TrEMBL record:
Protein name as it appears in the record: D-alanine--D-alanine ligase
Species annotation: Fodinibius salipaludis
EC number: 6.3.2.4
Compartments, as annotated in UniProt: Cytoplasm
Family: Belongs to the D-alanine--D-alanine ligase family.
Coiled-coil ranges per UniProt: none
Keywords, comma-separated and alphabetical: ATP-binding, Cell shape, Cell wall biogenesis/degradation, Cytoplasm, Ligase, Magnesium, Manganese, Metal-binding, Nucleotide-binding, Peptidoglycan synthesis
Enzyme class: ligase
Free-text comment on the cofactor: Binds 2 magnesium or manganese ions per subunit.
UniProt gene name: ddl
Gene Ontology annotations of biological process type: cell wall organization; peptidoglycan biosynthetic process; regulation of cell shape
Gene3D superfamilies: 3.40.50.20, ATP-grasp fold, A domain (3.30.1490.20), ATP-grasp fold, B domain (3.30.470.20)
Length: 403
């Protein structure tokens, strides 16, 4: 087996936990015949870090409580040479001993919350681990729909008119928030600011529906947004692969659902409970739209990808008025469901090739980072500096006694 250990990290404390597991299983299945030794890093719903071969098989996730008991606790660490490792923190079996795996690269396959918002990416940065996908900045901006749209607005990119508010503001002054919604004009779309997979998203035709939707959505996020509904609506998505300096766009897709606004069920349960994640959703690929609109969406996708300093793979989602072809940026997904491999198949790239490309981008980006000077060759803790600090403390004490 190759010594190149590839960690696939997934799960997490997120309403999108199960979706993340589905995506990770697709990644693992696609890479089983490569020369990588795949090491799973599963974060449970309670935040426990687990590893072990049983985490590589989908059928073992039917009982998550049992899985937590049988899997092995783990953490990040460094070996004697300072290389990042995934370290088992307990023994399984009388004659076994904890193992450590030097990490060649890591693929985050999280969706939502701590895994996709830059927090886990920051942990990888702290341990100097090469990881696929966007960095801390792009990940955090992509997760926050309001900040993402603020940036687009500042660069004169088209977004839908709307506003956001926090639960504390709703408690204090519901009427002002409802008045803002009324000024937009019903119907409106309500969304949690920091979630994906259409969880908590509702279309409200009038005030009572909006109130009910708000109360439900606050179960998932303290920050909500209300936007004017686009109708008749086409949702068009496009994926971007690469870095801000070297990228390519996929074909466009049109997701299909029972209503204009796609639900969680439309995205993940449209194939009779299929375990294919986003790949099971009904969609039109390539989207049946004009060449002019396709090129406009692809161009805008490139521009936003660069603007956010994204990396690896992302999916850009747009809203289109079907009558006028007016186009609006909706959101950027820095870890899209199923890594949007189905869009790249249309360009002649299967999922295995896509994952290998992501790993290559991750390791190349990491080489560039560690090739820079990362410390300054001086010692502020030498004897002279320490004396200066002691003197400063004496001055402070003298100043205190003078008062």
């Amino acid at each position: 087996m190759s010594s190149r250990n590839l960690v696939v990290a997934f799960g997490g404390v997120s309403p999108e936990h199960e979706v993340s597991v589905l995506t990770a299983m697709q990644v693992i299945a696609s890479l089983k015949e490569t020369n990588y030794n795949i090491i799973p890093l599963y974060i449970s719903k309670s935040g426990r870090w687990l590893t072990g071969d049983l985490l590589l098989e989908m059928e073992n996730y039917q009982d998550l409580d049992e899985l937590k008991e049988e899997a092995t606790h783990c953490t990040f660490s460094h070996d004697n040479l300072g290389q990042p490792v995934l370290l088992e923190t307990e023994k399984k079996g009388l004659f076994s001993s904890p193992e450590s795996y030097t990490i060649h690269a890591l693929i985050p396959a999280f969706h939502g919350s701590e895994g996709e918002n830059g927090a886990f990416q920051g942990t990888c940065e702290m341990y100097n681990i090469p990881y696929a996908g966007s960095n801390v900045l792009a990940s955090s901006l992509g997760m926050d729909k309001i900040k993402a749209k603020d940036i687009c607005r500042a660069h004169d990119l088209p977004i839908v008119e709307g506003f956001d508010f926090y639960e504390s503001e709703w408690v204090k002054d519901q009427q002002s928030i409802l008045k803002f919604a009324e000024q937009l004009g019903y119907p409106v779309i309500l969304k949690p600011v920091n979630l994906g997979s259409s969880i908590g998203v509702s279309r409200a035709e009038h005030k009572d529906e909006l109130i009910e939707a708000i109360e439900t959505a606050f179960r998932y996020d303290e920050n909500l947004m209300v936007e004017r509904a686009i109708s008749p609506l086409l949702e068009i998505n496009c994926s971007v692969l690469g870095t801000a300096h070297d990228l390519q766009t996929s074909v466009c897709e049109r997701p299909l659902g029972e209503d204009e606004t796609l639900s969680f069920e439309d995205k993940y349960q449209s194939d009779n409970g299929s375990q294919k994640g986003m790949a099971s959703a009904d969609r039109e690929i390539p989207a049946d739209i004009s060449d002019e609109l396709t090129q406009k969406i692809q161009s805008l996708s490139e521009k936003i990808f660069k603007l956010f300093r994204a990396s690896g793979i992302a999916r850009l989602d747009f809203l289109v008025n079907a009558d006028t072809e007016e186009l609006y940026f909706n959101e950027i997904n820095t870890i899209p469901g199923s890594f949007s491999f189905y869009l790249w198949e249309e360009s002649g790239m299967n999922m295995r090739e896509l994952m290998l490309k992501l790993i290559d981008i991750a390791t190349e980006q990491h080489k560039k980072k560690v090739g820079r000077i990362r410390s300054y060759d001086t010692n502020l803790l030498n004897e002279k500096a320490v004396k200066g600090i002691k003197g400063l403390k004496g001055t402070q004490q003298q100043g205190a006694s003078d008062k």
